[in-house]
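User: What would this chain look like folded?
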Amino acid sequence: MKRLHLLAGAAFVMLATPASAATVIVNSVAGLPGSTTWGTYPGENSNGGTAVVSGTVGRSGNGSLEMRGDRTRSQLGIQFTIGRTNLGALSDVSALTFDWRIAADSVNPYNVDYTPALRLLILDGSVRKELIWEGVYNGTYGNTARDTWYTSSANDKFYITGGNENQGQTIASWASQLSGARVLGVSVGVGSGTSLAYHTFADNVTLTTKAGSTTYNFDLAATPAVPEPATWAMMLLGFGMVGAACRRRKPHTAAFG
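Assistant: Here's the prediction, encoded as structure tokens.
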């Protein structure tokens, strides 16, 4: 009966865990972007800006994407004609969020609360467009602190390339309007003119669709954990108890004369 209870508990845990939620560990953003890897946006990072996965500040693990302006961007997917990627229909997308943090030593000519930008790269007919999140259009100015992690929301507003920045809409709203558009990629980065003194971090870029969500966690390569001495002692004790139980339950063979 105890075994049945354990199996029932395990089944409940499996059912309670969303099968459609996935996390992809991104250890590097070096090189050109591809359909399944993050890379440097072609033509960006040309003003001396850098974007690397570092251990300077950990978020979900021991690292995050560390960016120093000016004009720095890293992305998943390709939005140009040659090698253009297709990540699915925009109509299937319900949200795009991420974690961001402004470093204590960051300096820029715009605003003390200037944030990195998050973009959803789309193709509307034959026209490349971007849905862009920036903190200034989502109430962050005057409401943030340095060296503090913040998380954007599915209810936050994105403005569209060529549109009015102050008339942004949620990703879900854009998806319902641009029904024929498809997703080419996702990018996170820093705008032009921030100066090389701008310093920020990003992590856990999450794209949510009807099929589920995928989170891109920028992190250093995992290091195998070494058990503490107390853990080793408990493991040995456990093995000893299992062995003793097996010996007690070993059947005796009767001798017949």
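Residues 3 and 70 are 60 Å apart (CA to CA). If you want, I can go into more detail on any region.
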